[in-house]
Amino acid sequence: MPTNQTTAEAIRVMTICNACRYCEGHCAVFPAMERQTVFTQNNIDFLSNLCHQCGACYQHCQYADPHEFGINVPAVFEQARRESYTQFLWPTFMQPAVLHGGKFMATTLLLAISLFFLAIVGLSGMSKIFAPQVNFYNLMPHSVMAGAFSLSAVMVVVSWWMTLRRYWHSISLPSPGSIRMSTYRVALASALTLKNLDGGHGEGCYESGESPSLWKRRHHHLVLIGFVLCFFATLLGTFYHYSLNVPAPYGWLTLPKILGVTGGIMLLVGCAGLFWIKQTADQRLVSHDNGYGSSLTALLFLTSLTGLGLPIAKGTGALGFLLAVHLGCVLALFLNFAWGKFIHGFFRFIALLADEHQKTKKN
Amino acid sequence: MTSKTHFDVIVLGGGLAGLTAAITAAETGATVCLLEIAPRALRGGNTRHTRNLRPMHASGAFPMEGAYDFDEYLDDLLRVTAGDTNHALAELTIRESNHALTWLQEHGVAFQRPLSGTLHLGRTNAFFLGGGKALVNSLYRFAVQLGVHTIYEATDIALNISGDRFVDLTYQQINNTHRISGKSLVTAAGGFEANLDWLEEAWGPAAKNFLVRGTPYNKGDILRQLLDAGFKQIGDAAQCHAVAIDGRAPAYDGGIVSRVDSVPLGIVVNNEGKRFYDEGQDFWPKRYAIWGRLIAAQTDQIGYAITDAKAEGLFMPTVLPPLKSTTIDDLAKQINIPADSLQKTIGEFNAATVSGSFDHQALDECHTEGLPINKSHWARQIDTPPYSAYPLRPGITFTYLGVAVDDRARVQVEHGNPSENIFAAGEMMAGNILGRGYLAGIGMTIGNVFGRIAGREAARHAN
Ligand SMILES: Cc1cc2nc3c(=O)[nH]c(=O)nc-3n(C[C@H](O)[C@H](O)[C@H](O)COP(=O)(O)OP(=O)(O)OC[C@H]3O[C@@H](n4cnc5c(N)ncnc54)[C@H](O)[C@@H]3O)c2cc1C
Ligand code: SF4
Ligand code: SF4
User: Fold this and answer.
1) Residue in B51, B132, B319 closest to A19 by CB
2) Between B416 and B407, whose confidence is greater?
3) What single-letter DSSP state applies at residue B412?
4) What is the mean pLDDT of residues A151-171?
5) A55 neighbors A217 (Cβ within 8 angstroms)
């Protein structure tokens, strides 16, 4: 693999960090760095994905700007991470989705909303879409929706499989079956608790400056839990529909609704929080990513907002339009799952797994 | 800029000593102004480059890995200074160091287990999580919260001292002159290690080839003014802590990463290609400080640490790769020393090694016999290419010359009573306790202990 500019800079930075090691206690990156004998494209792909962008090592670096070494680990790692997403993305012709994340989101969102709008018009006629509606299956049959999203889901899973196995092999992880269960457990725990966002002292990260804060971690938890709740709400809805023969819409006090509404609200709050943190972040830590990072937050926010709007719009003329927008958001979100920022979670989990694996191998 | 021009306490210098003094004084309710010569991004002096301090402690509770009691600490201090210490102040420092960890933790400083490669310090030294700059940031945050008036880029501070009393001072900021007065003055502006002219007075022209490991701002201006005002000097300028570092390091602020730990694994030659000292006398952390002086004594103040392939991976990685070659002749050419001389030195060295089992983590039995300068440990033949060379220069860490203080951190007058309102803390007065030698972590310990004493006493005087 040719080493490009970002990798060369990451290697320069890691060489200095490895001679210094003052940040050893902040996160998993530095102990992992010390285990490497040389720095290469492959272990930069590993180390950069292990970095959770907490900012501690930048705020505390004795060699940061204006020092002539100009060390900034989070900035170069953010860039390197994004390049690793690009490089391993399958199919490769989708790489612009990473390089121009904002445009990709805007285009897919617009197309998807139009598509659903036209589909509703096609399926139920122009007159119906703006007429007061109680049940959205009158606008678009359940089978059509389920069909469209099942197909998208298959596409998402296939591209995950292809993308992630390439990353997996490149950072020298052995076959999934030969990794110990306990290794998976520890890595999963670090991923889910966002252990590496605690600064090493439990007080949080330094994205917005010199004082540690736990808010990024909290908001990320809200988003993740909210997402999982919504995911289960959907699964449960599908189960009700096919197995119990109870079709939507569900009342406020049914399990799918409770999960969905709780999850949706958590997503709204969490995404707004993450967005706000990004706005107030120390500018030296963030690089211009053409909207790549924010597109996931934006889509999750819009999807839950429109999703929560549906029951409220029930019985009004807005339901049809809102449905098209909501389904458009969901479809754009699916595309983000496959080729957008969503994959950062998997890359990070795999990096955490590789870290744990290297540690157990060493002992 | 506020227009406030009178304070209870003025503190000069915002490293550990100054910050500790400012916080301590402000916590008693005093109004405090802290003047720092560096811009905000480079504040914190040498404290920014530190990683640990050495507190006396009764147990192995986190982050310590075992107890370190008063007697052992005092023994260590007396040993490294060869008795060149003010006993009363040394004992005071050690006793008070017992509270250093708690004090720092209460002010937001986090600790961690010893860094890899420093396990030998795990019992005696407490490591700052994220290093000295993390500590500096925490303390500034506290100082600001307490209302300490902090002024950066305060240059050309000129003290107005009448007799032995501080009256007021002027400083420049962005081409404007300001005058402020204070009831007490705490001087904590570090040593003069970045002042090569001053060092030259003691070291001669050799000083021009010294690299400064820490901040470029510690030029000793304040110290000089105190000495010129007649306060009592302690130590002499020829004493300084200088270690052997990579000759290619930045002229200032190279810090920890300029270290080269390969010396004990090979030989060191000067630019005539000759060895000049026992490279294997003891473990490198115990010896690197004498190597600064040894190299300062060579022509052009340069040395070369030469190793072969067998040494690779056995020492801490360096920032810059060594100069490398598959032949000794070519290596000599790269470092610009006579090839035949280097060949001869290595040939004689190889012939003098006696076989034994090599262990770089113990004082092993590999040594040489019959050379004018033998190597006591880790002596293996230099015979396996590629060969590596690191250029070495003296890197100055800090100076010992300072101002004499009493147990209340008041600066001493040559003959007579101490000043009633001028105090000193940190490296400016460390020579009272550490007359020579070095004990890892003692600098920061003195900074915190005397920072607290000076802050308390300065505030008390102001009330
Ligand atoms: C690379 C390196 C590593 C070190 N590691 C350790 C370690 O791990 N443990 C340890 O105990 N010791 C260590 N030391 C020594 C330690 O740095 C000092 O003992 C300690 O920082 C002294 O604290 P201080 O506050 O007196 O000085 P400093 O931290 O140097 O602070 C002095 C401050 O005064 C300011 N100043 C200077 N001149 C003026 C002026 N004229 N006007 C206004 N302000 C001025 C400076 O800008 C600076 O901010 C290390 C030193 C170096 C160079
Ligand atoms: S980020 Fe800076 S302080 Fe931290 S390990 Fe790297 S070089 Fe050292
Ligand atoms: S930014 Fe945070 S997570 Fe990333 S390397 Fe630095 S300390 Fe570790």
Assistant:
1) B319
2) B407
3) P
4) 97
5) no
| Interface pTM, i.e. ipTM | 0.95
How high is the pLDDT of residue B3?
65
Q: Given the structure tokens 């000794």, which residue do they identify?
A: B328
Instruction: Show Cβ contacts of residue B229 under 8 Å, excluding neighbours closer than 6 positions.
Output: B159, B161, B164
Rounded average pLDDT over A169-182: 94
Beta-carbon separation of B112 and A25 below 8 A: yes
Give the other-Cβ count within 10 Å of B173's Cβ.
15
Q: Where are the domains of chain A?
A: 5-88, 96-362
Distance of CA A319 to the CA centre of its chain: 29
8 Å CB contact between B139 and B23: yes
Cross-chain CB nearest to B318 (options A19, A56, A67) = A19
Q: What is the CATH number of the domain that holds B450?
A: 3.50.50.60
* Contact criterion met (CB < 8 Å) for B253 and A21: no
Which contiguous run of DSSP H or E holds residue B296? Answer: helix B284-296
Summarised one tens digit per residue, pLDDT across range B283-305 is 988 888 899 999 999 999 999 99
> Which of B152, B233, B249, B149 has its CA nearest to residue B191?
B233
Strand pairing report for B165-173 and B211-212 = unpaired
Using one digit for the tens of pLDDT, what is the confidence trace for B327-344?
999 999 999 999 999 999
Q: Rounded to the nearest 5°, which phi and psi values hold at B44?
A: 95, 5
Q: Is residue B1 part of a domain?
A: no
Which residue(s) pair with B234 in the sheet? Answer: B402
Q: Does A21 touch chain B (CB under 8 A)?
A: yes
Q: Is the pLDDT of residue B200 over 60?
A: yes
Let me know whether B306 and B364 are in one domain: yes
Tell me the CA–centroid distance for residue A24 and ligand 2, in Å.
Answer: 9
Q: Which of B401, B16, B9 is nearest to B220 (CA)?
A: B401
CA dihedral angle for residue A283, residue A286, residue A292, residue A298, rounded to 10 degrees: -50
Residue B103 inside a domain? The answer is yes
CB-defined contacts A:B, below 8 A: 80
User: Domain containing B425: what range?
Assistant: 6-237+400-462
- B75 φ, ψ (degrees, to nearest 5): -55, -45
CB A353 within 8 A of CB A187: yes
Tokens 């067998």 — which residue? B310
pTM attached to this predicted model? 0.95
- What's the domain count of chain B? 2
Residue A362 predicted with pLDDT over 90 = no
Q: Which residue has the higher pLDDT, A317 or B155?
A: B155
Residue B332: inside a domain, yes or no? yes
Put simply, whether A65 touches B (Cβ < 8 Å) is yes
Nearest C-alpha neighbor of B138 from the set A144, A11, A56, A172: A56
AA identity, residue B402: G
Q: Which residue has the tokens 């009493």?
A: B406
Q: Which of A22, A39, A76, A285 to mutate to test the pocket of ligand 2 (most atoms within 8 A of CB)?
A: A22
Nearest to B102 by CA among B170, B144, B53: B53
- Round to whole Å and give the CA distance between A10 and A24: 17
Q: Which residues of A touch B115 (CB under 8 A)?
A: 21-22, 24
A141 or B20, which is more confident? B20
